[in-house]
Amino acid sequence: MTTQAIFVRQIDRLKQSFGERAYSKEKIELIWQEVKNLKDNDLTLLVDNLIADSRFAPTRKDFREGISNLRLERYYEEKKKISRESERMSDEIISGTFKFIGKIMQGQYSAEQVKAFADSVKSKQRACRFCDDSGYVFTKEKNGPYENIVFKCKCPIGKQNEDVFPSWNADFAEKYELMN
Q: Could you give the CA distance from residue 57 to residue 40 in angstroms, rounded to a whole number?
């Protein structure tokens, strides 16, 4: 949550860059409604980007677009992090599996221990190949202007999302390709 002090500081920076008259009290209140749920450092980054990239005073729409871009960047950062963790876990699982199989063959583990190990390996596997357990399927048009389209995945995580995105299905697979 953005603190009031950080918000005031960022508005002052915008006023310094674009002029005092560019931000009326009403406009500032509307911008507050857009950014109040951001973390302080995200608001600072957003204002940095708006100052650097805008020729004119950023509008509420510019703030909305900037927030959307920040969220998309965070999603991809998290996805990369999860992917790295998943690869590391896969390597550990494979190594541990081979060691465990060797010990099973030597008779060092009971049937209960073997079952418990198999269950733990199953629980660490990714559940959905379409959305990487995010609940959203990111696609682009195969034969066209390559517009990015987001679908709600039909996996259990996607079904929990109450967004208005259309649900991913085989009909869409013919027109769109996965970006994952």
A: 21
Q: pTM for the whole thing?
A: 0.51
Q: Which residues contact 35 (CB under 8 A, 6 or more apart)?
A: 2, 7, 43, 46, 63, 67
What are the strands, taking DSSP E only, across the chain?
136-141, 148-152, 176-178
- The CA-atom distances, in angstroms, between 54 and each of 17, 85, 98 are 10, 37, 57
What angle (nearest 5°) sits at the alpha carbon of residue 123, between those of residues 118 and 126? 125
Strand, helix or coil at 141?
strand
177, 146 Cβ separation under 8 angstroms: no
DSSP E strands, 20-168: 136-141, 148-152
Share of the chain above pLDDT 70, in %: 85
- Beta carbons of 89 and 124 less than 8 angstroms apart: yes
Helix (H, G, I), strand (E, B) or coil at 104: helix
